[in-house]
Structure formats: structure tokens, C-alpha cells
């Protein structure tokens, strides 16, 4: 959330000339706003993870609204907030790893596999306080 993601548009602004199509959906320019708000690949993975945990999808039309929604849902020490923080950070992390694998290793996997990996990681890494909730969900 610090606006330091090295997406293609940011690298181009820093003087590095690289292709700037999103490597996940191939539909638009690779940018922070696209990745978090518009990218169909990101959306389908995030929605599947939210659906898995019976959580509401993140509904945002722009970056500012996205940040506000994430902060609102991650705020506090409730189990719901803790669960949301874990789901959100693991999803963003796995998507970023997939994006980089596509760019640097020329490999790719479908959104279903990424979503399953995120669910597995969340089941393993869930703190005790929310592990019992997470383990109840069926993917
Ligand atoms: Zn995309």
C-alpha cells in the first residue's frame, strides 16, 4: 500500500524500457491500479479466495476506493480482520510471484491453481486464533 510496486509503468518512468502489457491477463497496461482494481486474473483469484471463506468480494472502482476498502476490512483485532489480512496479503503475494514467474521464467499457471495454493498457504500459516475457522472452509 506504499505505492512502491515495480510494475512496468513505474519501471518505464524510472527510465527502464520494457514491455508494459499485464502478464496476467494480457488485456491492459501493467500498472498498480490495473493489477489491484482492473485485472481479471487478480479479480478471479481474489473473488475465489473471498468466496472460499464466505467473505465479501472487494468492490472498488479505483485505487483510492480499493485502499479504503482494504483498510476498513483489515482494521482492528477481530478474527474477521485477521482473516481478511491473511487472505489479502497471501493473495497479493502469490499473484506477484506468479507475475514475476511469467516475466522472468516464462512459465505460467492458471488462476484455479493459484487460488488453491493460496488456500493451502492460508491453512498452513493461519495463526491459532483463526486456524479453526479457516480449516472449516471447503475449497
Ligand atoms: Zn491484468
Helix content: 55-70%
Largest sheet: none
Work out the helix count: 7
Which structural class do the helices and strands define? Answer: mainly alpha
What would the principal axes of the Cα set say about the shape? globular
Describe this structure in words.
This protein has 139 residues and is mainly α. It is 62% helix and 0% strand. It is built from 7 helices and no strands. The chain has helices at 8-13, 32-38, 40-52, 63-74, 79-104, 111-125, 128-134. The longest helix has 26 residues, at 79-104. The radius of gyration is 15 Å and the shape is globular. The model has no long low-confidence stretch (mean pLDDT 91). The chain binds zinc ion. The site of zinc ion has 8 residues, from loops.
Describe the structure concisely.
Helix content is 62%, strand content 0%.
Please specify the SSE layout and strand pairing.
Layout (H helix, E strand, L loop, with lengths): L7 H6 L18 H7 L1 H13 L10 H12 L4 H26 L6 H15 L2 H7 L5
Helix pairs in contact: 3-5, 3-6, 5-6
The structure holds zinc ion.
The site of zinc ion has 8 residues, from loops.
